[in-house]
Amino acid sequence: MDGPRDPTLSGSEQAFDAERPYALHPQVAIRPEPFGGLAYNYESRRLTLITARPLVDVVHALADHPTARAAVTAHVAAPDHGRYETALATLYDSGVIRAR
């Protein structure tokens, strides 16, 4: 898979884990849109569509919480937690967020 992560890391080191702390990648800017947002990575020049405004809010809040799960819990209704954690994993894989 081609992506921004370090290919020398093992699979377990690369996998998204909601119990770890994350933050918006410093080379990424998110432009809020009525449908959610557009994330642009200035390093890779990749544009990522975020299709839910609450997900944009969670991404911006990641740095304020001890774990990704805590950020999701603080900003999303309980029935949707799993869906948002899956979305964060996708954003991690595409380089929008990174572990801190």
Q: Number of helical segments?
A: 4
Mean pLDDT: 90
Q: Give me the CATH architecture, please.
A: Alpha-Beta Complex
The helical percent reads 25-40%
Total domain units:
1
SSE topology string: HEEEEHHHE
Low-pLDDT parts are: 5-12
Q: What separation lies between the terminal Cα atoms?
A: 22 Å
Structural class: alpha+beta
Major sheet: arrangement of strands = 2-3-4
CATH topology: Outer Surface Protein A, domain 3
Tell me, what is the CATH class? Answer: Alpha Beta
User: What is the tally of beta strands?
Assistant: 5
Shape: globular
Main β-sheet description: 3 strands, antiparallel
What is the CA-atom radius of gyration, in angstroms?
Answer: 13 Å
Q: Percent of residues in beta strands?
A: 15-25%
Would you kindly provide a written description of the structure presented here, covering whatever features stand out?
This protein has a single domain (20-99), classed as Outer Surface Protein A, domain 3, CATH 3.90.930.70. 34% of the residues lie in helices and 22% in strands. It has 4 helices and 5 strands. It has helices at 11-14, 53-61, 68-75, 81-93, and strands at 22-24, 28-33, 36-41, 47-50, 97-99. It has a 3-stranded antiparallel sheet, covered by helices on one side. A hairpin with a 5-residue loop joins strand 3 and strand 4 (47-50). It starts with 10 loop residues before the first helix and ends with a strand. Residues 5-12 have low confidence and may be disordered.
